Amino acid sequence: MLSLNFSKFPILYTERLILREHVLSDAETLYAMRTNETVMKYIDRERPKDLLEIKTFITTFNDGFENGDNLAWVIAAKEKPEKMIGSIGYWRTDYANHRAEIGYMLHPDYWRKGIISEALKRTIDFGFIDMNLHSIKANINVENNASRQILLKHGFVKEAHFKQDYYFRGQFLDSEIYGLLNPNH
């Protein structure tokens, strides 16, 4: 049985990182990341208008966990667990098919240091072992080669290339879907 109903928010650890729940004190950092055009270059989502919108977003994340709809972690270094450097998580959970979509973002100061790779490995393991997912998908902007490479490194395979399936800021964009099957199923 697929489960996102945990009695308390699951905190995950890796060698260098702690993956923890979003808290309202993360709002300024998250706002800065979601309004940073370098961070958001390939994340085709509207930018938040203000801090209140981000606080609502955090509350929605946490409510989504409570409802079993999503599971999103803040990425932080173990030595500074209060300082958000990125986020990673599952959403668009398809319970009927035991599949969830994974997404991630990281502040540019921490790019190319293996952080997303480390967080991704831990969240994939959690998805397959603790959530009992059968498959994980990732939806990327076709120009995001860095994200494509990290997915391929972790065993994802390209499942689809959709032509102009996503409308954002006045234009239709292509999408690539990558998938990873649970090796234990």
Automatic annotation (TrEMBL):
One GO molecular-function entry: acyltransferase activity, transferring groups other than amino-acyl groups
Domain N-acetyltransferase: from-to ranges: 17-174
PROSITE patterns cross-referenced by the UniProt entry: GNAT (PS51186)
Keywords: Transferase
Metal-binding in keyword set: no
Name of protein: N-acetyltransferase
Annotated source species: Pedobacter yonginense
Species lineage: Bacteria, Pseudomonadati, Bacteroidota, Sphingobacteriia, Sphingobacteriales
